Amino acid sequence: MKRIGIIVGSLRGNSFNQMIANTIPELVDSAKYEYISIGNLPLYNADLDRGEGLDPVRHYREAIQKTDGILIVSPEYNSGIPGVLKNALDWASTPTKTAVLIHKPAGVIGATPGVKGTILSQQQIRQTLDATQSYVLPSQKMYISQVMEKIDSETRKLTDETTRKYLQRYVQSFIQWIDQVQRLSE
C-alpha cells in the first residue's frame, strides 16, 4: 500500500483546501495518507539549515522522506503560491544533494472561491517542484473553482459529485504515477 503525504498550503482553520484534502482518503482507499504540517516551520534561513536542522524542520523532512509521494493541496494568494507553502518547499529542497524532494513523485491540487481556479499558483508550485527535481504528475491538472458551492462546511468535505469524480481520477492517476516513477528510478 502506497504512503501518500498530503501538504496543505493554507494555515487557515476553515481552509477550503484542507476540506479537499480531508476528502481524498475516502475517494481512494488503496493508499495510506499522512498529513504533513507546515505551520510550525520557521522562515527559511540558510544560517539555520545546518546538520539535521531544527526539530520542526527535521520532523517535516522525515515525514516527506517516509512517503512514496506527496500531494500538495493549495490555494492561490494574489495570483501566486502561498508564502507558507513556498517556505515549506524551500526547507524540503535542502541539503542540495540529498533533499527529500529529489525524485519524489508529486501531485498538485488547488481550490479557490474564484472562477479561474488556482492556475497561476499551480504553475509556480510546479516550477518550484521542477527546480527541486521532484517528479510532478505530467499533463493532468486539478483546479477546483467556486469551491464554496462544492463543499459542506459542517462535514468539512467536498460534496459536489462531479468534482469528487475528477479528484478521485486525479489521485488514482497519481498513485499510478508513483509506480511509473519507481520503475524509472530502478
From TrEMBL:
Q: Where is the NADPH-dependent FMN reductase-like domain?
A: 3-146
Instruction: Report the Pfam families cross-referenced here.
Output: FMN_red
SUPFAM superfamilies to which the protein is assigned, alphabetical: Flavoproteins
Q: Which residues form the signal peptide?
A: none
Gene Ontology CC: one annotated term? cytosol
Top-rank lineage group of the source organism:
Bacteria
Q: Tell me which family the UniProt entry assigns to this protein.
A: Belongs to the azoreductase type 2 family.
Protein name in UniProt: NAD(P)H-dependent oxidoreductase
| Organism of provenance | Cohnella nanjingensis
